[in-house]
Write a structure and sequence with these properties.
An 8-stranded antiparallel β-sheet has the order 3-2-4-1-10-9-11-15. 57% of the residues are buried. Strand 21, helix 12 and strand 22 form a beta-alpha-beta unit. The model has no long low-confidence stretch (mean pLDDT 93). The longest helix has 20 residues. Helices cover 36% and strands 23% of the residues. The chain is built from 20 helices and 27 strands. By secondary structure, the chain is of the alpha/beta class. Helix 4 packs across helix 5, helix 8 packs antiparallel against helix 15 and helix 15 packs parallel to helix 20. The chain folds into 3 domains: 233 residues, 4-Layer Sandwich (Glutamine Phosphoribosylpyrophosphate, subunit 1, domain 1); 192 residues, Glucose-6-phosphate isomerase like protein, domain 1 (Rossmann fold), CATH 3.40.50; 146 residues, Rossmann fold, CATH 3.40.50. It binds fructose -6-phosphate. Fructose -6-phosphate binds next to helix 9 and helix 17.
Length: 608
């Protein structure tokens, strides 16, 4: 979603601001802007669309200020045009904002009543006018921000610069994350460590409710009560990460191909490869034996990872699992039992709905465990137990390697649960762990089918609708396949449990509709073949993802087979995820869409 950068620099900062914003492009945005202090005056440059448009504006009208803020905006209130792009300004202050100001309408009416003139449709502009209304009363910038913050309802990260103040920047956080960066005679604000990566490795995160007053050499943080507090400075490690695509055309392609390696890293974190045992590196503050119900909550692709894990926890640990979409979980008033376990899955660790669900579960007295890819994220910091996935930064908006690494961590946890509950023997554990250890090799084998999938994608790109079918753990993967295709190629796709076909979606099938069937040869394979026959009988074109045995047994007309390696049934979703992702990727490439930053989507969804 939106990205924030602020620099109190020693030289001109406009170029650095844009450079940092480029690192935030992966979050998704539709306009961008910067403001710097030019001879004491606040001057802005903004542009609709991609950063290259902003760069072109800056080339025509350069900025030389040493203090500045920058922003990539993902539209919530008002269209993605220049007038709505951040920074927003009133006479004495400019501000950039992530999140949503829920009471902006009433504040806007009040401020307009007091004579303020608004230039945009955004919720953010009320923040600029509100702070300005205190400045014109003679308050200092610090006091003006202090007076304004309690008036704002909603979620926000804010960075302010002020007319006439070339040694001052103020940041505030409620809900949306904000980090302080410490430089040599310079200070920075950023919405994440990646934004700050080109500038510094030394960062600290504001806690919820904190606000900070920065000069070139100092950072004074206050909490919501107004007390001065210390927030630990840590090494972000993000500067060692190079945002480049290597030899790939898109980040998504690079990330798909990284999977054998990063799944290997995640396995190494949770397994003892030598003894073929689960070896969780953290102590669990609960005993799986005492857990009666497990609740898993997440959004989008992370939710589908949770859906696969539901099958594992139920099968390996005989533990009943409820899987929820985060935005539904806390409003549906599910009966929850204090002492049970709630698992939250999130690549970014900042998804607003998942974070709200985590807080709700904590209030209900549940133990909380999160599977996150960003270990410094809010969800990680607020969970009782954290299982980091070691996927490395995921830049493509469509989640790929984070998904398979989430599955890896969850598989290890489900086996650990089975051991603790006595439902898996030593031998079962060794067999399952052996299966996990094989995954990187099998995923690498799955990647070799890319040329065939690329050819198939040309065909899929002509379709208007695509159906994905699967049973068992291949059912959530079918949902994931449909999500992946629609989000990056904009082709309508739906995922169904194969057995549900005849309860409705079969009505859609004709010779124009490709049906992707995910069916490793397992105990439900025969049933899936029957569903394929139903498709074939109606002229549907089938793309079957299966193994050698499955290909031999499936005798259905008009079928293309993508041959996956033989492997244990339990962990097929990790390997079959690869052709599913590649099919979506190559279809999107044929369609010519913006694969890494598909329209309307954001990487880190920090609004509800
Ligand atoms: C789809 C995708 C999204 C995310 C969802 C949750 O490819 O990436 O559906 O999975 O927005 O995001 P996180 O995992 O950051 O909570």
């Amino acid at each position: 979603m939106c990205g924030i950068i602020g620099i109190l620099g020693r030289g001109p900062v406009a170029e650095q601001l844009v450079d940092s914003l480029k690192r935030l492009e992966y979050r998704g945005y539709d306009s961008a802007g910067v403001a710097t202090l030019e001879d004491g005056e606040l001057v802005r440059r903004r542009a609709e669309g991609k950063l290259k448009n902003l760069e072109a504006v800056l080339k025509r009208q350069p900025l030389a200020g040493h203090v500045g803020i920058g922003h990539t905006r993902w539209a919530t209130h008002g269209k993605p045009n220049e007038a709505n792009a951040h920074p927003h300004a009133a006479s004495g202050v400019a501000v950039v904002h992530n999140g949503i100001i829920e009471n902006f309408r009433e504040l806007r009416d009040e401020l307009e009543g007091g004579g303020a003139t608004f230039a945009s449709e955004t919720d953010t502009e009320v923040v600029a006018h509100l702070v300005n209304s205190f400045l014109v009363k003679g308050l200092s910038p610090q006091d003006a921000v202090k007076a304004a913050l309690p008036r704002l309802r909603g979620a926000f990260a804010l960075a302010f610069v002020f007319k006439g103040y070339d040694d001052l920047m103020i940041g505030a956080r409620k809900g949306s994350p904000l980090a302080i960066g410490y430089g040599d005679g310079e200070m920075y604000l950023g919405s994440d460590a990646i934004a700050l990566a080109p500038l510094t490795d030394d960062i600290s995160y504001l806690d919820d409710g904190d606000w900070v007053v920065l000069t070139h050499t100092t950072a004074e943080v206050r909490d919501a009560k107004g007390d001065v507090v210390k927030r630990d400075v840590m090494k972000s490690g993000a500067s060692s990460f190079v945002v480049d695509k290597a030899n790939y055309r898109h980040f998504m392609a690079k990330e798909i191909h990284e999977q054998p390696e990063v799944v290997g890293h995640t396995l190494a974190r949770y397994l003892d490869m030598a003894s073929e045992r689960i070896a969780l590196p953290m102590k669990l503050p609960f005993d799986f034996k005492d857990v009666q119900h497990l609740s898993i909550t997440a959004c989008g692709t992370a939710n589908y990872a949770g859906y696969v894990a539901k099958y594992w926890f139920e099968q390996f640990a005989r533990l009943p699992v409820e899987i929820d979409i985060a935005s539904e979980f806390r409003y549906r008033e599910a009966p929850l039992r204090s002492g049970d376990l709630a698992i939250f899955i999130s690549q970014s660790g900042e998804t607003a709905d998942t974070l709200a669900a985590l807080r709700y579960a904590k209030e209900q007295g549940l133990h909380t465990l999160s599977v996150v890819n960003v270990p410094t994220s809010t969800i990680a910091r607020e969970s009782e137990v954290v299982m980091p996935t070691l996927a490395g930064p995921e830049i493509g908006v469509a989640s790929t390697k984070a998904f398979t690494c989430q599955l890896t961590a969850l598989a290890a946890l489900a086996i650990a649960a089975g051991r603790a509950r006595g439902t898996l023997t030593d031998a079962d554990e060794a067999k399952l762990v052996h299966g996990l250890i094989e995954l990187p090799r099998l995923m690498a084998a799955a990647l070799t089918h890319e040329p065939q999938i690329e050819r198939l994608a040309r065909d899929i790109s002509k379709a208007q609708d695509v159906l994905y079918l699967g049973r068992g753990t291949s059912y959530p993967l079918a949902l994931e396949g449909a999500l992946k295709l629609k989000e990056i190629s904009y082709i309508h796709a739906e995922g169904y449990a194969a057995g549900e076909l005849k309860h409705g979606p079969i009505a859609l099938i004709d010779e124009k509709m490709p049906v992707v069937v995910i069916a490793p040869y397992d105990r439900v394979f025969e049933k899936t073949v029957s569903n394929m026959q139903e498709v074939a009988a109606r002229g549907g074109r089938i793309i079957l993802m299966t193994d050698a045995k499955g290909a031999e047994e499936a005798t259905v007309d008009s079928m293309v087979t993508i041959m996956m390696p033989d492997m244990p049934a339990a962990f097929t979703p990790m390997v079959y995820a690869i052709p599913v992702q590649l099919l979506a990727y190559h279809t999107a490439v044929v369609m010519g869409t913006d694969v890494d930053q598909p329209r309307n989507l954001a990487k880190s969804v920090t609004v509800e």
